[in-house]
Amino acid sequence: MVTLSALAQGLPLTAHEALSGVFGSISLASWIFLLVPQLIENYKQSSADGISLAFLIVWFIGDITNLAGALWAGLVPTVIALAIYFCFADLILITQCLYYNFTNSRKARRKSTRSTLTDNEQAPLLGRRDSSIGLPGSHTRRRSSEASRRHRESVNRRDSLASIVEEESGHKEWVKNTVSIIGVCIIGTVGWTIAYKTGVWVPTPTDDGSAGTDMALGAQILGYMSAVFYLGARVPQIIKNQRDRSCEGLSLLFFMLSLLGNATYGAGILLHSVEKEYFLTNLPWLIGSLGTMVEDATIFIQFRIFSDGERSAVVV
Q1: pTM (2 decimals)?
Q2: What is one cellular component GO term in this UniProt entry (predicted)?
């Protein structure tokens, strides 16, 4: 970020520093757009059943501790602004999920009540109607068997068509997500280029004593706490996916952006400097970013396994 000492020294732009700036800018773009795909997915489904509320709440706590640590450490304004943005975005997503969970559960209760009343009203009629089954000379069983066979054939044709449509839609979804990731990378790269050309971003000296080596102990503790919350947040989601044997209702792009943001964030830090003091200062944020990449990869595997399982179940 901009420092007076860097501007005064007119530091040359090295390849490592340029890559560090580009990766940092891509990470920033990823975080800005991160929650949008899941908000859209919930809106399209009119449901938030696919996402674990515990995942969002623990992640929100991690963002709060991250913001507190950034304020305590006196980090650059962009980092603090992004932390504040994340807290508000988390609240929006949590509120949306609570709204859909409440409205859908109320609709389900109303439907269950109406279904019970209807069953009670029709029970005597059904009893009288069923009494005619099995009378001598009736052809009910034969007609029922033929109707059942025609129904199975119709269902098999629909299932085959559904599997083809599902496979095509899945392919289109992957293409759309890939294009979105490329677009975020382009936005981040262009953003860094403009910032560098206009002097908003300049190389930061790696041997500058103000690189954060004197960060307050409390800020470091909050940083480690946020890393623990970030690492623990995805565990409820992974458990939910495994229990339901499905990732339906989750936005794949949401986790792809998370993986991109964490990877570029960690790469941006490591490309800037690997000196011991600098590394230890940023270790909490590195753990939080790079550690969650393993969990994101686990969710990607679940997407793949469960989507294949659902497709094979349709064919059968």
Answers
A1: 0.76
A2: lytic vacuole membrane
pLDDT digits (tens, 9 = 90+) for 199-212: 888 777 655 444 44
Task: Return the closest-CA partner of residue 1 out of 289, 184, 196.
Answer: 196
User: Could you tell me the two tokens for 286?
Assistant: 């590195």
Q: Can you tell me which residue has the tokens 């129904």? A: 151
Where are the chain's structural domains? Answer: 20-104+166-315
Task: Give Cα 48 distance to the centre of its chain.
Answer: 12
Q: For 41-53, how does the pLDDT look when each residue is reduced to its tens digit (9 = 90+)?
A: 999 999 999 999 9
- Show the CA angle centred on residue 263, arms to residues 260 and 267, nearest 5°: 135
